[in-house]
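Please decode residue identities from the backbone states below.
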């Protein structure tokens, strides 16, 4: 039996744009379904919003995104960050560069006291990201 934990991010109306942005960074296969296509009761004004979007990246990462309906308000603040980590420095730096475009670095991607390279940012959609590139053990 397999269990997987992956981020599911809710937006109010720009999930399609966010998915296109993340797809340009992570690559992979993109699956979209609107409220009209999903068969769920919905406000007709929200018919073309994304009920479920899923990005399956070639390296096994999965990112899910939706437009929350107006009847489900999104909290103003979140205490969640998506974390990317591993030892493929070129790939992780590429993700950092892509996510940084139009975003706000909170901590630059640089050598950390524990020996890894680490940084934090908020992307242009307001999603917090942490990137950790494994260093050489001391």
């Amino acid at each position: 039996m397999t269990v997987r934990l992956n981020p599911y991010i809710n937006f109010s109306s720009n999930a399609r744009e966010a998915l296109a942005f993340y797809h340009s960074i992570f690559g992979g296969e993109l699956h979209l379904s609107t409220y009209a296509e999903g068969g769920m009761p919905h406000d007709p004004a929200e018919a073309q919003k994304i009920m479920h979007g899923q990005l399956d990246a070639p390296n096994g990462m999965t990112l899910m995104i939706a437009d929350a309906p107006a009847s489900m308000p999104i909290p103003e603040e979140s205490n969640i960050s998506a974390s990317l980590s591993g030892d493929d420095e070129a790939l992780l730096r590429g993700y950092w560069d892509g996510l940084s475009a139009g975003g706000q670095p909170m901590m630059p991607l640089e050598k950390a006291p524990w020996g890894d390279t680490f940084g934090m940012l908020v992307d242009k959609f307001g999603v917090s990201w942490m990137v950790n590139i494994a260093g050489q053990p001391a």
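Observation: DSSP finds three helices and eight strands in the chain.
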